[in-house]
Amino acid sequence: MSKLNKPIGKVRYPDKTSINLLMRDNSVRDPKFQIILFVIFAVVLALFVKFLVVDKLAEAYDAEKAYTQMQTQIDQLRASNEKYDQVREEYSHYGNGYLNDEEKIEQNRMAMMRVIQRNVISKSEIQSVEISGNVATLTIDNIRLKTVSDIVASLEDDDIVSFVTVSTAGTNTDSNALVTATVIINFVPKGGEQ
After folding, report:
1. Which of 38, 53, 82 represents a domain boundary (last residue)?
2. All residues at 6 or more sequence positions from 138 whose CB lies less than 8 Å from its CB, including other chains
3. Which of 143, 109, 110, 150 has the alpha carbon at shortest distance from 126?
4. Model-level pTM?
5. Which residues, other chains included, contact 146 with Cβ-Cβ below 8 Å and sequence gap of 6+?
6. 112 within 8 A of 136, measured Cβ to Cβ
7. pLDDT in tens, 82-107
8. Which positions ≥6 away from 161 have C-beta within 8 Å?
9. DSSP H/E element including 91
10. What is the mean pLDDT of residues 114-131?
11. How many domains does the chain have?
């Protein structure tokens, strides 16, 4: 007989008749390890809540509070600006908001006085100063003609002075004699030349 023609005999099957459904749980670990894991989880959760929830809510609250304060200030400013036209009209004479065309071209009075102080007061005693428009009229008493000439030259060198005229009155023909001089300083109008 060949190996292929082997007689078929009795076949044996496994003879286990019960199933054991109880399995050994390998995932159960030491309770100390589970407690440590829980504490680490609680710390991570607390940090997450603190930095990514509570702090962000506090920032949002602060930003909302700052916005509310700024909006209140803006509302107060708007309310105070409602009277702007009335206040502007009341105080217009302090500024140049309501100057007419002639007044707008007048040189600044403080600039005119600085020119007079720089060029005249340091060299003589002024008896009177009269300013009208862009013209300053000075009366200088007891001054020599040479000093008057020096004052006129220094005034004409100043940028805001257009030209200077002088008239003198004296009783002596001597060039060193003291005279009374009237110096008329014509200042350059604002925004143009004369």
Report:
1. 82
2. 116, 120, 126, 128, 129, 182, 183, 184, 185
3. 143
4. 0.46
5. 175, 176
6. yes
7. 887 777 677 766 665 556 667 677 77
8. 115, 155, 185, 186, 187, 188
9. none
10. 86
11. 2
Report pLDDT for 40: 95
Span 4-9, average pLDDT: 60
pLDDT tens readout for residues 137-158: 999 888 888 888 888 888 888 8
Rounded Cα–Cα distance for residues 53 and 51 (Å): 6
**Cα 125 to Cα 130: distance, rounded to the nearest angstrom:** 15
Asked if residues 161 and 186 have their Cβ atoms less than 8 Å apart, the reply is: yes
Q: What is the Cα–Cα distance from 115 to 158, expressed in whole angstroms?
A: 8
Q: Are 97 and 88 spatial neighbours (Cβ–Cβ below 8 Å)?
A: yes
Is residue 192 in some structural domain?
no
Q: Which amino acid would we find at residue 58?
A: A
* Residue range of the domain that includes 66: 30-82
76 and 106: one domain? no
Same domain, 105 and 183: yes
pLDDT-based confidence at 194, cuts 50/70/90?
A: very low
Structure tokens at 84: 């702007």
